[in-house]
Write a structure and sequence with these properties.
Blueprint: H1 10-19, H2 21-46, H3 55-107, H4 109-112, E1 118-128, H5 135-153, H6 160-170, E2 182-187, E3 192-198, H7 202-223, E4 228-239, H8 242-287, H9 289-302, H10 311-343, H11 350-354, E5 361-364, H12 374-380, H13 388-403, E6 408-411, H14 416-425, E7 431-434, H15 440-446, E8 451-456, H16 463-475, E9 479-485
Length: 486
């Protein structure tokens, strides 16, 4: 659905910038103002300032130096006793974690399998409990059957003897790697137990599944209430395992995070060592502060200089930095808008629909927000520039002509208001049911219709949500009539 190459036209980028022109100008204005402030402040700081240092100031500097000395000694002691040992422990822990992850990725059968072509053997069976006809027993049948199913799901991991036999069948050296290849789960709604053995050698997977099923049913007959087991379905073959994809990505992400954390821990250790050396230098520097203060006092008594700052030069510098900041802000604003528009995953214009999906674009409704350059944006995006009423009427007629006598509804991944607006224009000949992604009532109503029309909003509807809508509709056997873009 999204495998088609997406072409980005220059006109689409220009339209994207025009839609956010106000935000771009505000961003440029703010950076220009900040640039002017920076220019004025830096100019003032660069000027020689009039200063006068007396004996009181010198004494203050001596006290500050003594305080710096005490703080440096305390900080150095804390780093030597606490921070540096903790950093070393963090490095050892992360190195151990990375080693474990790499050993797992190297030795694990589960991690070594291809999740997009993973071999597996499945077996589903149900549990039935005899009903004696007694009313009390009849009321307890469901609870008994549910308890038996829970007991089946808790039989794996099995005892060491069973695991050893499975290990021999599958030819795996370490038992801990067996548990992630086999899952036993239940379906509470249908009272079904599902056994899944993941292994690329389908013959070995079938043998393991048969042995595990026979062992579990034999043990259940000995320890559980009397019941009957009926195999509902079995399957062995290759399939895509989405949970395995997520698991592989999680392990790789964990390794990357651990390696990144190790690098940060090593940097922190080096930083702490460097800071300790700096604090030793501070200790030496503080002892010389008194002598330096006395020299400054003598210099201050001889010299008193006052300089006036040129307001004209300051204004010139402020304007220079303001223009530079405004230009940078304009460029950054354009870059941010373009990057957000291209990579936010949100539908921006009709090209995002026609380039990605094979379904017809029934119509493009006018902007709900008016701009004085609406016609220019429409021309850039390849839309009609006629009045809004004509566009709405043409879109509605196109929608009605495609619907004919079929039972069609409107769905939307975003707000239902958009779909309700379209439905009102058709005089309710086409009904709206809302979103089928998170609304159970909408999914129930969908069964009453044979086809659907997607109503999506520019700047709001996400591509992944539209993909999910289409997949959900197709999985329910509904035809995609087309898409209306607002």
């Amino acid at each position: 659905m999204n495998n088609k190459q997406i072409d980005v036209r220059i006109t689409d980028l220009l339209a994207m910038l025009l839609k956010r022109l106000k935000a771009i100008l505000c961003f440029a204005l703010i950076l220009g103002l900040l640039g002017s402030i920076y220019g004025a402040v830096s100019f003032v700081k660069a000027q020689p300032q009039a200063k006068q240092v007396d004996a009181v100031d010198a004494e203050k500097k001596v006290k500050i130096a003594e305080l710096r000395l005490a703080r440096a000694e305390n900080a150095l002691s804390f780093r030597d006793r606490v921070e540096i040992p903790n950093a070393e422990q963090d490095i050892e822990h992360l190195e151990h974690t990375i080693q474990q992850l790499r050993e797992y990725m190297k030795d694990s059968i589960y991690y070594g399998m291809n999740p997009y072509h993973r071999g597996a053997a499945h077996l589903r069976f149900s549990v039935e409990v005899d009903n004696t006809g007694d009313q009390a027993a009849a009321n307890a049948v469901e609870d008994t059957r549910a308890g038996i199913i829970v007991a089946y799901t808790q039989m794996f991991p099995c005892d060491s003897t069973t695991l050893s036999q499975i290990q021999e069948i599958m030819g795996i050296e370490k038992q801990e790697y067996i548990k992630e290849l086999i899952t036993v789960s239940d379906d509470d709604d249908h009272h079904v137990v599902d056994i899944c053995v993941r292994y690329d050698d389908l013959q070995i997977a079938d043998q393991t599944l048969t042995y595990l099923y026979q062992t579990m049913t034999a043990r259940a007959k000995e320890s559980l209430p009397k019941h009957q087991v009926q195999v509902l379905s079995s399957f062995s073959g290759y399939e895509v395992d989405h949970s395995m994809i997520i698991s592989h990505e999680a392990n790789e992400k964990a390794l990357q995070n651990a390696e990144s954390a190790l690098q940060n821990a090593e940097k922190k250790f080096k930083s702490l060592t460097s800071e300790a050396n700096d604090e030793k230098a501070v200790i030496l520097e503080a002892s010389q502060a008194l002598h330096s203060a006395q020299e400054e006092l003598q210099d201050a008594q001889n010299d008193h200089v006052s300089h006036r700052i040129s307001r004209r030069a300051m204004l010139k510098r402020a304007v220079k930095f303001s223009l530079f900041g405004g230009l940078v802000g304009l460029m950054l604003g354009c870059c941010i808008v373009l990057l957000k528009g291209l990579f936010s995953g949100v539908i921006q214009n009709q090209s995002d629909i026609t380039n990605r999906y094979p379904f017809p674009l029934i119509g493009v409704m006018p902007f709900t927000k008016k701009r004085w350059f609406d016609k220019l944006i429409r021309r850039l995006e390849g839309e009609s520039t006629v009045d809004n009423a004509s566009i709405i009427q043409a879109t509605v007629q196109s929608l009605i002509s495609r619907v004919d006598d079929r039972s069609v509804c409107l769905i939307s991944s975003g707000s239902r208001n958009s779909a309700d607006l379209i439905a009102s224009y058709t005089e309710n000949r086409v009904q709206t049911i809302g979103s089928i992604l998170d609304n159970a009532e909408a999914i129930r109503k969908l069964s009453e219709f044979t086809g659907v029309v997607l109503v999506e909003e520019r700047g709001k509807s996400r591509i992944d949500s539209i993909d999910a809508e289409i997949l959900r509709a197709k999985s329910l056997g509904k035809d995609i009539i087309g898409i209306v873009l607002i």
